[in-house]
């Protein structure tokens, strides 16, 4: 009877409170978190520039007690305002913000919204992943690494945190080299679990946690893939971590072929892992709990290649919970690096909105893997395919549709037969020992067809190889390089595809089953570095202009901030690879995305931090921005991929930010632009039509001050989204070089705008500052943003670039 009563009550609760209708809500409440007791960035000034690690100190004990009190107050608030059984608290956020997440119904959430002490409440919108050679490409071995304070110790002493899908602890990129033991302090907890024994935290990986309360509340997790430990079942988190901080010189071997050696940007940096994304689901609440913990653990740099890819705050993009957490991480002295998003190439697609996070766009590299298909008539067709060549000189060439079994129905009972997805549909006698032509058709466009399925078909039926050609009925397609275990090549352009199909038709007599076309697939695994224009901003990389609200009104702040390699990046992977079957069983993945670009910047930031331990996050990000280049390897302006499948256009700061990062120059930038928490407050308070009450509610303090205009925020760029007549923009630079230097100002003005810098030249002492006024005046109205730059050239060989992006809308 007692058991029946419990079950009845549980069922009653489900009926009354709508279990099926529950959602996760993120809640901020009144009262200061521990980080509020620090001055802006002071956490980073302690212990020779590092964040706080001193377990047992009086300050740490105070913060721990205060955090415990906050957690108890969250429980009390829920108990006093919501009905018993109607909710489940998932996390207490008690370090950088004061708040919690709760799983409950919309009606209960409305009650909570009205409760005394509740400041903000936001529905969880989920989180997603923004899914070797680049150290050499960026000049690290001969440049920054060469100048490392300790030989072969680039990044030593710096802790990079990764909020992502976890890590593969057995990968050689994360092995610990004990001979370099420097007594790096323990900074967190190593949470054990499936596939992740405690020994996984080995000195290279110094902390590892997983956050799953949101995932478990939202979905029925699959225990075989949603591993409840820091282990990475996806590969994404391992890829990101090794790109930033993977060990140097790790052999990249896939399918028995050695593609070279991989290295992270800062191979001696330490890694802290915060798993918050699962194959089945990702939630913002898990991500925010991970961010809170990472800052508490004292990471120097926080890498976010995950997060929401659209604004969750309709009125002000920069006051979503995600951005608020990043702001308070920045206040604690942590440099936050954020993927710009993968929704390009359209304008206003940026997913990084705030000046306190470095938004990273993605470009390609100068490396290419040229594949080729040679036809029996000697014609050579270029394509893409990381595979071995076919054996022997020639093999029979067969179109997939021509190899259907005789009794196979010609109706649509089995879809996409021309895409080589179904071994049972093909006649083994025809395709065996043949190169089979597969068509890129509807199944690939809707996601139901895949290259791994072609590989499986090829293995099952004994293909010599396969060719995936563009379907003239659908047009060109976008092809990425994948390591293939059978010979294969992708031919994504219709014009090339037509050459193959025309040749095939001329040598095929279907009535007599005479397939006389011949072909061979060339070696596609050997990289070339010649005749490849680079960098080019990738098509998928999200673009500016930055915007202030969901209606996409532009804002006076440049986004993305900077450009880094993010296309076809070799790095560590997880053999489970549950979301990318084509990489299953591999320890390395060749992957693309702004997710891959962000850790390049995080690793380079670690190198700058190592060399300049007292620098604030804004100084580090400024150093990278003002020294970036806007020219490619041919000395021409950077180009960007656009809407046309293979078309290029001149890149602008809304595509590439300040330009391609240049580490060797970033470690010695000459001048830097500095800004801190109070500046960000003033920036928010000066936004047009700013909701001052919303800002006060979100940040816990009123708008006591504001800039004359948002454009006065001291960033290393100037963006004016609506210039009417004239405007004066103010900037301050600091000399971080060790010598007195004289700078001369030069301007490349945007079309339709006259620009003057005052003073036109100045001399600045070490650690000295100089105020600058940038006077802009409309000379001709334009229908879109125009771009230029200010260049400060020093007599000690420092060059400081400041991008200008202006929309001149009226003469006065």
Automatic annotation (TrEMBL):
Active site residues per record: 164 (charge relay system), 236 (charge relay system), 595 (charge relay system)
Q: What Gene3D superfamilies is this protein classified in?
A: 2.60.40.2310, 3.50.30.30, Peptidase S8 propeptide/proteinase inhibitor I9, Peptidase S8/S53 domain
Residue ranges of every copy of the Inhibitor I9 domain listed in the record: 66-126
* Residue ranges of domain Peptidase S8/S53 in the record: 155-631
Instruction: Fetch the InterPro entries from UniProt.
Output: Peptidase_S8/S53_dom (IPR000209), Peptidase_S8/S53_dom_sf (IPR036852), Peptidase_S8_Asp-AS (IPR023827), Peptidase_S8_His-AS (IPR022398), Peptidase_S8_Ser-AS (IPR023828), Peptidase_S8_subtilisin-rel (IPR015500), Peptidases_S8_3 (IPR034197), S8pro/Inhibitor_I9 (IPR010259)
Where in the numbering of this chain does the Subtilisin-like protease fibronectin type-III domain appear? 712-806
The superkingdom listed in its UniProt entry is: Eukaryota
UniProt similarity note: Belongs to the peptidase S8 family.
Q: GO biological process annotations for this chain's record?
A: proteolysis
Protein name, entry field: Peptidase S8/S53 domain-containing protein
